[in-house]
Amino acid sequence: MQIERVTSPEGFDRAFAVRVEVFVDEQQVPIELERDDRDDTSVHFLAVRDGEVVGTVRMYEDPPGEAHLGRLAVRASARTGGVGRVLVDAVETESRALGLRRVVLSAQLQAMGFYERLGYTAYGPVYDDAGIPHRDMAKELGP
Fold first, then answer.
1. Which of 15, 23, 105, 129 is the Cys-Cys partner for 56 at CB 3.0 to 4.6 Å?
2. How far apart are the C-alpha atoms of 123 and 136, rounded to whole Å?
3. Any idea where the N-acetyltransferase domain is (predicted)?
4. DSSP label of 37
């Protein structure tokens, strides 16, 4: 599996197709909520296995000094084998390269165990996002 940084509109279309499959089709998130103004300013990554895009994630800096990891989506057929972990690693590597000290994210409650195994800690209350319960999580980045 390789991780590719999205550098073209076509690459974004490939990432967005995975997000639609996972969030809109599987989880019934309204399509109008899936695309937002952060997409244009985020760094997007694709996980590619045997020529097929099997996952995606985006990151942006907000607040200053912190990376926000979001829209992590892995196709159902690829949810074993570490695709999600490799995408999180890509965000953490990029964050360190940019000198960011922490990664924050909004986790669906059903995904919290995944992030906890990668060193993330939950904080704050549970809240609704697009009809799905979420909780904020963070990880301090070492050197």
1. 15
2. 6
3. 1-142
4. G
Among 93, 97, 25, residue whose Cα is nearest residue 57: 93
Q: Which string of DSSP letters, residue by residue, matches 63-102? A: STTEEEEEEEEE-GGGSSSSHHHHHHHHHHHHHHHTT--E
143 DSSP assignment: -
Residue type (1 letter), 78: A
Amino acid type, 135: R
Which pTM value belongs to this model? 0.94
- Contact yes or no for 92/141 (Cβ under 8 A): yes
3-class secondary structure, 26: helix
- CATH superfamily, region 2-140: Gcn5-related N-acetyltransferase (GNAT) (3.40.630.30)
Return d(Cα 70, Cα 87) in angstroms, integer.
11
